[in-house]
Amino acid sequence: MPFDVLPPELLIRVLSYLPIQDVVSFGLVSQSFHEVVRANEGPIYQAAAALHGFIEPAENASAPQLLSAVTKIPDATGWLDDVRSWKEFCRRHFLREQAWRGKQGPSADEEKPFLGVFQSDVITDIHRFKIDEVERTIICTTGEGGLFVMSIDTDEILWCLPEWYVAGYAHVEYGNGFIVFTRIEDGVEVWRRSVDSFNRETYLPCKPDSLQIEVSPSPVPDFPPTFPPVYDSHTEASPSDETPTHRRGVYLPFALLMSPAEARCYRLVYPHLLVASEFSRQAFIWDIPTARLVETINIQTPPRRGGFHLPVHMTYVELSSS
């Protein structure tokens, strides 16, 4: 009998013997499996909590343990305050275990916890980070991939792009509401703070790449030459202050910049982005607001010394704001 035609109560019984990592993977298999997990999160994650040792197994299956009974245990840290579901209960336990492991995360010999769902407050192996002082957020990339925007005040992840889309150790720059990072295959992606895109004073038309639109966690409107952005009939209505598109830390795709030669070094000093190529020994200056290449500079080879040419290895470039 195919697994997906089993009665829901039997599926739930099977899932009660699985660790959380496998429950999450099960929910990603298909829409129907996802709905089974979503509709029965309470008993599934309660069973997972017992399986992982977060709670004692229920002595009587017909009288399951109450969530309130395990979250009201006296604790000065308040780490279980405001827990409203068994899923959140498991998430808090995973985060605490990760914190006890320290910044380096689990060792190579340990089983690494699945953080695809419980990752919202834990990021390890940070590669590069930038600060948005206006919205008080941290923008960072990691060695494992992905791009994250976190609240400085609460460490909460406000917005992110997945690991499969942003390469590990991706370079990231930030300035004046624009995130710039290197694409996996080629090119440089530009994303803009959404609140600026829906502000008449700061509005700019843009033409994001189709892949950027597809991967965007928020619906992407059309950006005509004049304000405001326009949503078509296939997307939701124009966002208000309460919708995800218009919240702090959310970004929308702005442009894809394709330099004439393979690039190695990058530096953003708004409104210009300097992209340098070691291969062609050229530097390309892009104007971010218009997404145009405005200047190409040939990099001179260092003079000969002792009859030998000095090697040209670029590790860093700088751009003057003047």
TrEMBL record:
Coiled coil: none annotated. Residues 1-48 form the F-box domain. InterPro entries: F-box-like_dom_sf (IPR036047), F-box_dom (IPR001810), Quinoprotein_ADH-like_sf (IPR011047). It comes from the Eukaryota. Pfam families: F-box-like (PF12937). This is F-box domain-containing protein.
